[in-house]
Design goal:
Spore Coat Polysaccharide Biosynthesis Protein SpsA, Chain A; UDP N-Acetylglucosamine Acyltransferase, domain 1; elongated; binds calcium ion; 8 helices; binds uridine-diphosphate-N-acetylglucosamine; 21-stranded parallel sheet; alpha/beta; single chain
């Protein structure tokens, strides 16, 4: 059975008041449209068509990497008109039970299970509508049934603007999603007119056509309200963000993660936790983050694309991106690990320490106010407060190699390329521009002098 999926994304999104097309606004780090595309990937083989219009170029660019094709709708004359543009793209197989699923690019949390139920209800033979009963149905298309009860046969959909006061009392609404037999959909959509209050081609008018032609119409109920909510305004976007974050937080807690407060947790990507992980409030996770067992993350950390080893503790206000943290390491508070930072087991990185493109072997410590860039740091190295690697000569980056058991005093400048020999000590305040021997003390600063007989100047008396 051929499955075609049409995702409508041509609408203007006026209420977003944004230059960015509505479907490209981000929810949990991914564009709204991407949520829908990712969901369709779970439906098996399908041909996906995205209807673009407002901001078409940006939307087309955003989906360039996916299997979906795009079709432009210019101007936008309604949802029926949108589907008309997709017709030449739909499967031409005849009488094989081909089904077309219609989704909206601005309804991001629709679940694969619900979409599958809709496709099954259609089965290439019936028109299946996704509906839900709302307390306040204002603005939505209402489901007309024979008799008042929800059990009555579906007869049609009437748009809010075209509905009579009695019809506006109906609380079962059309969610904007349906599955239709492809061959029939083509016939119906081609026959649509625009004789209504808005002068638009309403896709929803195909329901009455199906009823007229004796094609069964079935309504599938959405599992919950969240999966059929659309985004029209920044307020609605933020509301969906919280709902999605809550869902993600619940899934993590069910997996055993202890979140201090699920309402103050943000995941914009994927978090793969080990056992007994604790996450304090206000943390943001982005990209793919892997946590070992018993990892503790303090409040207000931002962690993107990182791997944190068993038992590591990340203290509050730490920023980690593109980095690896070894087992039992302590990081922060206020530390910054930048791309290419790889901390071995039991490494300590303290407050206001920045590490970039550097490896620190087991037990190395940089506890305060320091910079390590393009460095290879040996085991048990102690790197003093205020010390930096001068890794950039204004044109190129160079490496600093620090051997095992080195102690670098405070306020040292290691001018790369340079190697500090194993077991050596660098005296505080040194500026090191050539390699130093192992095990010796190297001091590179002006020798201290005290001037006997020196007297402090006194202020000249006023004339
Ligand atoms: C539509 C339904 C209504 C349903 C509601 C659910 C019709 C006529 N009405 O209402 O029954 O309750 O969705 O939210 O279908 N779009 C285009 N091209 C257009 C017009 C719309 O691509 O010319 C896209 C929009 O970007 C959006 C979707 O279609 O993704 C729905 O459009 P919208 O204007 O929000 O739907 P309504 O007309 O309010
Ligand atoms: Ca509309």
């Amino acid at each position: 059975m051929a499955l075609d999926i049409v995702i409508m994304a041509a609408g203007k999104g006026t209420r977003m008041k944004s230059r960015l097309p509505k479907v490209l606004h981000r929810l949990a780090g991914r564009p709204l449209l991407q949520h829908v595309l990712d969901m369709t990937a779970e439906l098996g083989r399908a041909h996906t068509i995205v209807i673009t219009g407002h901001g078409a170029e940006a939307v087309e660019q955003a989906i360039a990497g996916s299997d979906a094709v795009s079709v432009r709708q210019m101007p936008q004359l309604g949802t029926g008109h949108a589907v008309q543009q997709a017709l030449p793209q739909l499967s031409t197989e005849q009488g094989d039970g081909g089904t077309t699923l219609i989704l909206n690019g601005d309804v991001p949390l629709i679940e694969a299970g619900t979409a599958r139920a809709l496709i099954e209800a259609c089965g290439g033979k019936q028109l299946a509508l996704l509906t839900i009963v709302l307390d306040d149905a204002t603005g939505y298309g209402r489901i007309l049934r024979s008799g008042d009860a929800l059990g009555g046969r579906v007869l049609g959909i009437v748009e809010h603007k075209d509905a009579t006061p009695a019809q506006r009392e109906i609380r079962e609404i059309y969610t904007g999603m349906m599955a239709a037999p492809t061959a029939l959909l083509k016939r119906w959509v081609t026959a649509l007119g625009n004789n209504n209050t808005q002068g638009e081609y309403y896709l929803t008018d195909i329901v009455a056509m199906a009823v007229d032609q004796g094609v069964p119409v079935v309504a599938t109920h959405a599992r919950d309200e969240t999966e059929v909510l659309g985004v029209n305004s920044p307020l609605q976007l933020a509301d969906l963000e919280r709902r999605l974050q809550r869902r993600q937080a619940e899934a993590l807690m069910e997996a055993g993660v202890r979140l201090a407060d699920p309402a103050r947790f943000d995941l914009r990507g994927e978090l793969l936790p080990g056992q007994d992980c604790e996450i304090d409030i206000g943390c943001v996770f982005e990209g793919q983050v892997v946590l070992g067992d018993s990892v503790r993350i303090g409040a207000h950390c931002v962690i993107r694309d990182a791997e944190i080893g068993d038992g590591a503790v990340i203290h509050p206000f730490t920023h980690i991106e593109g980095a690896k943290v070894g087992a039992g390491a302590l990081v922060g508070p206020y530390a910054r690990l930048r791309p290419g930072a790889e901390l071995g087991d039991e490494v300590h990185i303290g407050n206001f320490v920045e590490v970039k493109n550097s490896t620190l072997a087991k037990g190395a410590k940089a506890n305060h106010l320091a910079y390590l860039g393009d460095a290879t740091v040996g085991e048990r190295v102690n790197y003093g407060a205020g010390s930096i690697t001068a890794n950039y000569d204004g044109a190129n980056k160079h490496r600093t190699v620090i051997g095992d058991d080195v102690h670098v005093g405070s306020n040292c400048v290691l001018i790369a390329p340079v190697t500090i020999g194993e077991g050596g000590t660098i005296g505080g305040g040194s500026t090191i521009s050539s390699d130093t021997p192992p095990k010796q003390l190297t001091v590179a600063r002006a020798r201290q002098a005290s001037l006997a007989g020196w007297t402090r100047p006194v202020k000249a008396p006023k004339a």
